[in-house]
Amino acid sequence: METLVLKIGGSTLESLPQAFYKHVHELTRTNNVIIVHGGGPAINDALEKNAIEATFHQGLRVTTPEVLQTCEMVLSGQTNKYLVTKLQEQHVAAFGLSGIDGELLQAKLADQTGALGLVGDIAHVNKQMITMLLANNYVPVISPISMTKEKQKLNVNADSAAAAIAKAMQAKLVFVTNIKGVMSKQKEIIPFLSKKAIEVAITDGTISGGMIPKVKAALSCIESGVQESIILDSESLIGLATHTACGTSIRLEEASYV
């Protein structure tokens, strides 16, 4: 069985249709499925509600202990359990956990100067724990909050966590977004993109706006050792179950978008 890591961003998560959860159920018939999620908009709302000031360093959010506590509450609590519940409604054996549980994700400080605060990068993935859950037909639903060797909790970017898990599990990484894939200037889905093709497409304006960070995140995952990243929307997800071409595949080998 092929292993798929589905990465769901916070903004996408809020608008997922009921069909998405049915598609995940279909995928589990022929694939091992792992879900990694973010929760940015909900975190922003919680910080504002609790009057916790958000500060930034070089465009990145600084994670203070107060911010980390809010991130953990939203990601590992509210968002994680929402996803687990929605999946279980479609008879998916979802198992919600964070990177802290069972020492699933061991992290290290991303910035040793301390300028970013409690922000981490994944150093090690507990493959045995994920394998155990998959072997018992569970779908792990993972919040990226992680912990160091010294048991310090850290806030980890969901894209980075998903990439580390996909690399460790030798899995295909699927970015579930609100678009069907990267579109050409003729408004057709580009089936394959390499690093070189992405650079050209950004330069000539084919890839622009909010698609740029999505493509760069997928590309960085490939460069970290993930064999393939796919960008698609929730409706196209069913194509993975039926082996129908869907979304845009990001690969290392040369591929033209023309």
TrEMBL record:
Q: Which reaction does it catalyse?
A: N-acetyl-L-glutamate + ATP = N-acetyl-L-glutamyl 5-phosphate + ADP
Supply the EC number(s). 2.7.2.8
- The record places domain Aspartate/glutamate/uridylate kinase at 3-233
> What are the protein's GO molecular function terms?
acetylglutamate kinase activity; ATP binding
**Stretches of the chain forming a coiled coil according to its record:** none
**What keywords sit in the KW lines?**
Amino-acid biosynthesis, Arginine biosynthesis, ATP-binding, Cytoplasm, Kinase, Nucleotide-binding, Transferase
Q: Which domain of life is it from?
A: Bacteria
One GO biological process term is: L-arginine biosynthetic process via ornithine
Q: Which CDD domains match?
A: AAK_NAGK-like
The record ties this protein, via NCBIfam families, to: argB
The name of this protein is Acetylglutamate kinase
* Annotated organism of origin: Paenalkalicoccus suaedae
Ranked from the top, the taxonomy reads: Bacteria, Bacillati, Bacillota, Bacilli, Bacillales
Point out the gene that encodes the protein: argB
